[in-house]
Specification:
Blueprint (H helix, E strand, L loop, with lengths): L2 H9 L21 H5 L32 H5 L15 H12 L12 H5 L15 H4 L6 H4 L3 E4 L5 H8 L5 E6 L3 H19 L7 E6 L13 E5 L8 H12 L13 E7 L4 H12 L3 E6 L1 H8 L7 E8 L4
Parallel strand pairs: 1-2, 1-4, 2-3, 4-5
Antiparallel strand pairs: 5-7, 6-7
Helix pairs in contact: 4-8
InterPro entries: Methyltransf_16, SAM-dependent_MTases_sf
Organism: Phaeomonas parva
Protein name: Calmodulin-lysine N-methyltransferase
């Protein structure tokens, strides 16, 4: 994250606090060995390569073009080079792996759980920004209660983030969205093949997972949800205003509370390198007094989601500031 933006975020007063208190030194985090062991379970797909599209017209790719990542090995992702939305980007992989990790761990920087945030409960500094009691620090961010919240992913592309939410984080109602056409068709195939694979192994627990077309300029078409997900959504500056129209409607406006959550939450992962639109998005959100923004520190993202793929990835949790 840009140093100036990060400083602004870290020094902004937190709701419920009397002014800005100096941030104590971060707590030392436990070893990530238990998290790594999860990838050794029997249901891990044997191949360590991402599955490319099986259809006959898919372009042949070299070994160097494949993303070597355990999450990509467990989710079959049909993709081609025909469209930017039919490829898998690093932010989506990071988001999927982080959601899985948060089933066992708290979210660094936030002491509350996901359902606390979504019901408007105030939050206090968490493990990354201040001392909290061991009982609070040990709470996983995603619990059974949170999994009942309907989830919508924006700009799903190949669907790795939304599939991770449904298949590994255990959310029960997940809608993956993108624009109509080849991207949405590929997304539907990816959902179908992964649901079938998980059903076959007796690992499918989701009540509903579906793909849907979504026009960011038509906010009334946003499916009801309590949790909004997104990864790699802004490249150029001209994509920021349409995205903000969706975020505004979901967190503050016409679609707020449509999914049964009094204080909906937007969890967003995006690359910072070569993304001029992302800096503009961050500037707009941080300067808007209606938003409360929590950034997961880079070291925590690396520890929870894999050091190999998280450099230059920001993970943000955004909600309405006066949600309670």
């Amino acid at each position: 994250m840009d140093a100036a933006l990060l400083k602004q975020l870290q020094t902004a007063p937190r709701r419920g606090a009397a002014g800005s208190a100096p941030s104590p030194a971060p707590l030392e985090h436990p070893s990530n060995a238990p998290f790594k062991e999860r990838y050794e379970k029997a249901y891990v797909v044997a191949s360590k390569r991402k599955r490319w599209a099986a259809q006959e017209h898919a372009e042949e790719v070299s070994e160097n073009d494949r993303i070597q990542d355990p999450m990509a090995a467990r989710i079959e992702l049909g993709q081609t080079r025909d469209d930017i939305g039919t490829g898998t980007w690093t932010g989506g992989l990071v988001l999927a792996r982080l959601l899985e990790a948060l089933c066992d761990e708290p979210l660094p920087g936030i002491s509350g759980r996901l359902e606390d945030l979504c019901t408007g409960v105030d939050v206090e500094p968490g493990p990354s920004t201040g001392p909290v009691s061991p009982a609070v620090a040990a709470k996983p961010f995603i619990t059974d209660a949170a999994r009942a919240l309907p989830v919508v992913e924006l700009g799903s592309g190949t669907g790795v983030g939304g599939l991770g939410a449904a298949l590994f984080a255990g959310f029960l109602d997940v809608t993956l969205t993108d624009r109509p056409g080849p991207v949405l068709e590929n997304l539907e195939r990816n959902i179908e093949r992964n649901v079938a694979k998980f059903r076959e192994r007796g690992l499918y627990t989701c009540d509903r997972i579906a793909a849907a077309a979504l026009d960011w300029l038509d906010v009334e078409s946003i499916p009801p949800c309590g949790v909004l997900l997104g990864a790699e959504l802004v490249y150029e500056q001209d994509s920021v205003e349409p995205l903000l129209s969706v975020v505004d409607a979901f967190l503050l406006g016409a679609r707020r509370g449509a999914g049964g959550a009094a204080s909906p939450v937007f969890i967003f992962a995006n690359s910072t390198c070569g993304r001029p639109g992302y800096r503009f998005f961050m500037k707009r959100v941080l300067e808007d007094p209606r938003y409360e923004v929590h950034a997961v520190e880079a070291g925590d993202v690396q520890r929870m989601a894999s050091p190999a793929f998280t450099e230059g990835i920001d993970v943000l949790v955004i909600r309405a500031r006066n949600a309670a």
